[in-house]
From TrEMBL:
Gene name for this UniProt entry: Y2-aiiA
Protein's UniProt name: N-acyl homoserine lactonase
Keyword Signal: no
Originating organism: Oceanibacterium hippocampi
Coiled-coil annotated spans: none
Required co-factors: Zn(2+)
Molecular function as annotated in GO: acyl-L-homoserine-lactone lactonohydrolase activity; metal ion binding
Keywords: Hydrolase, Metal-binding, Zinc
Entries under SMART domains matching the protein: Lactamase_B
């Protein structure tokens, strides 16, 4: 059976972030730093990327009024180079969902097919008003950067096997078209659920994120993942970065 290694690569951070946004109004007033992570999945003579992180911090600030801190050498190309991967080696980018901090900088991967759930594509262009900035949505007067690579986006629907040992899971709740990856490793199945699980405690304690479009769907997604594995890597937990890789 195919086995892969997962490399979490930090491409920026948001400091002084309100933790209650991540834990369904628990921890009100607690401020945390959250990493913005892209995931390089390496094995079977290929490299698959899950999520592409934010756009350049200057663009994010100018267009979305968000502050992303990015230290020198933390850009995606440099982060990949540190593990011996060139951006043009990546043949597939799986975008978990189209929030601005997960779907930027896609021009950096010129040879990659980009996989997005069809339901997410539809919602991202015309979301509820409270999510217009989160999606950089046209209906809110924005111009999301992923539009510039639309010709390379392949809409997908539901669950499917992406490669031997890698399954795409439709995990709605945080967003309608949220998708994650179940990855076979030497240490068993690991699920990358993106913002389904912002922090380890979302999965371990069954606490949903405050940002969601369907709370009941989130709980169903939680139970789906728990039936598959007890090993989850969350999207915005600094503890993830205590290890350079997982599954080896």
């Amino acid at each position: 059976m195919s086995r892969y290694t997962i490399h979490p690569l930090c491409v920026g951070a948001i400091h002084n972030f309100e933790k209650s946004t991540l834990t369904y109004l628990g921890n009100v007033g607690t401020k945390v730093s959250i990493p913005l992570i892209i995931w390089a999945i390496v094995g079977e003579n290929r490299v698959i990327l899950m999520d592409s992180g934010p756009d350049d911090p200057a663009w994010v600030r100018a267009n979305l009024d968000r502050v992303v801190e990015r230290e020198p050498g933390m850009d995606p190309v440099s982060a990949l180079a540190r593990i011996g991967i060139a951006a043009d080696q990546i043949d597939t980018v799986v975008i978990s969902h189209l929030h601005w901090d997960h779907s930027g900088s896609l021009e950096l991967y010129p040879n990659a097919e980009i996989l997005v759930q069809r339901e997410e594509l539809a919602y991202a262009n015309c979301p509820a008003p409270c999510f217009c900035r989160t999606y950089a949505a046209p209906i809110g007067g924005h111009s999301p950067s992923w539009h510039r690579v639309a010709r390379r986006i392949r809409p997908v629907t539901g669950d499917f096997t992406l490669a031997p040992g890698i399954d795409v899971l439709h995990l709605p709740g945080h967003s309608p078209g949220m998708q994650g990856l179940s990855v076979a490793t030497a240490n068993g199945r690991i699920v990358l659920g993106s913002d389904t699980f912002n922090l380890f405690e979302n999965f371990e304690q069954g606490v949903p994120p405050t940002i969601h479009t369907d709370i009941d769907a989130w709980f169903r997604s939680l139970e789906r993942v728990r039936a598959i594995t007890d090993t989850v890597l969350p999207a915005h937990d600094m503890k993830v970065l205590e290890r350079a890789s997982y599954g080896a």
